[in-house]
């Protein structure tokens, strides 16, 4: 029995919640995963997983063994990266994820400059608004917008972005400019999935949250569509500040209710931070963090 392979499959099953998840994650047949985990349990002479039709759960022995397996696999991976030169020079593939619009506007230009500066490093940049799990998805670095939950991850703050309510000058000329958040109840609104509730918007009034019900005249599933609809005069929308820099500067959208914007969301570079960082990741952090700070500082109007 290859114990390291069996440990890896056991960890994948425990973290994925099922043997089939471990099979997909490790790209091996389900029968192989089941056999390897069973062999490991026979070798240890103890049950590690409670199997049910719905989900796997760890036994007490499984919890303790999972912690040990993670440590052992991390140390083996660290030794392999050292032998392969990842700790002596920036080389190899770096996997980075970022939100779609922010990634296209701000992360991609930094990545292209980094690739020019570090010819031995390749980058796989995945843009998506779904929150990825770094360890489970084998991601080296994630750009996260918003407050971070407590975790073992290391976060490097590079700036912040706000929530901005805006509309076209033509719409505001015809319907009037909202002066306080409550005025929005009389306006047509454009809402989109992924930025909080579709039925209410939250503002800050006298240092407290103030929730306003909004009428969704149009619902869309991307910020770009909401912005395009607002420029077309459909109604008022609410987006993140960096998403409308060009439109605000050109005058095609006019921000309103600026005095009532809630606290800005932080923007962080997040990585696992366990053990010694590979040189390729340290190099990217040193390269990207100041450039993203500068880009966010300039993303105002």
From TrEMBL:
Keywords: DNA-binding, Transcription, Transcription regulation. Pfam families: HTH_1 (PF00126), LysR_substrate (PF03466). InterPro entries: LysR-type_TF_proteobact-type, LysR_HTH_N, LysR_subst-bd, WH-like_DNA-bd_sf, WH_DNA-bd_sf. The keyword Membrane does not apply. The keyword Transcription regulation applies. GO terms for biological process: DNA-templated transcription. GO terms for molecular function: DNA-binding transcription factor activity; sequence-specific DNA binding. Residues 1-59 form the HTH lysR-type domain. Belongs to the LysR transcriptional regulatory family. This is Transcriptional regulator. It comes from Mesorhizobium australicum (strain HAMBI 3006 / LMG 24608 / WSM2073).
